[in-house]
Amino acid sequence: MRKLANLFFLLFILMSISGLLSGLATHYGGPGFVQPVHTTLHLLTLICALIVYIGCAFNRHLPKLLLFPLMLWLFWGLIDFRPFHSTSPATLTLVTSAVQLLLGLLILWINSRISRTGFLLTPRQFVGRTFDGGNLLRFIIINIIVVPLALVLLLFFSLSQLVDKKSGGFVELKPDGLYMKERIYRQGDKAVRLAAMIHLGQLDYYTALKDSLPTHSSLLLAEGVQDSENRLSGNFSYGKLAGALGLVSQENLRLTGAVISPEQLRNPDAEQLNQLNILAADIDLKEFDQRTIEVLNTLAREVLASDQPLKGYSRFNGWIQQQMPTDIDAIIMHDLIDKRNAMVLGYLTEAMAHYDHIVIPWGALHMPGIEKRVRQLGFELSSEHERKSIDFLLLPYGQIWQNLTGSH
What we know:
The chain has 14 helices and 10 strands. The chain is of the alpha/beta class and 408 residues long. Strands 1, 2, 3, 5, 7, 8, 9 and 10 form an 8-stranded mixed β-sheet that branches. A two-stranded antiparallel sheet has the order 4-6. A hairpin with a 2-residue loop joins strand 2 (177-187) and strand 3. The longest helix is centred in the middle third of the chain and has 34 residues, at 133-166. The chain starts with a helix and ends with a helix. The mean pLDDT is 92.
């Protein structure tokens, strides 16, 4: 175990050096092999740390006061050094790698002062019997608490990373709630405001968004598909599910402004431009694939309208697996995201000729594609802020469980 512990020390140092090189390569350009080398060293360091950590239960000589700070640092890295994480991955890698290098060198220096023979662990530090029953018992008792807590943190971080990736950074999952991001892009005197939305949230969230809307020479491109051919067999509404979760649906966002037509968008009059204009910038359901319509109808019937949404979701999921093709996810995303994004972006380019402020309050999954196009049009990010859409501390969990399962 002494040699493994020394290997862990060395890997910890090498990983920090490769991290510095990787961060510098990202900032200033460098060879492409640097990042893969850093990733490999990171993995090897984690594996070695886990083996040594388990070894601490059976080898009483392993210097826990020297090893555990390095292991805690690695674990903190697994959760992205929150809450002190950076929005720039390259900057985060540079800063944390520098601190990691200093931490590793400090631990080795402390060990040299203890052993008086070198920086690494020496055989003289491992004299005497290795196993100690009391040491093992203490390790087991401590880890009854530590291991479940670590697993919960890792699970939460993984979910948070998934949410961030799928939304292009427009949604952030934090321990106290779910936050929706808003980004304002500017080009000269024109501003495009991308406000990520969620179908279910708390009333304060929708009220704050409504109160923040501009009123002069402003256009809001509203989300909401039309159904001219009555392809939906029922009422597709999140209201009932929102009530079961102790929330309200996006339908409660009652906007105040002048609803205009596409023709008025192209030829606005002076009076029209003095207030907030609202344009339905979505497509008609007749543009959707029939399979997408079937999925939406089944979702509405089995989940949104159900008195037991969890059981309804189970039925819905089983129906999807039996009735739909394996590529149904791609078909649905093409209809719900790609086609609708194309429509709102078409209106955006038309609106730029007449309006100074254009607001796009659409679902978070739409935002990466819309943002990409806004950048292509020459707009640059001016500001960003967030709003808490769901406060986890305010949710009535007992009531939610009863509502979802139908148990009383």
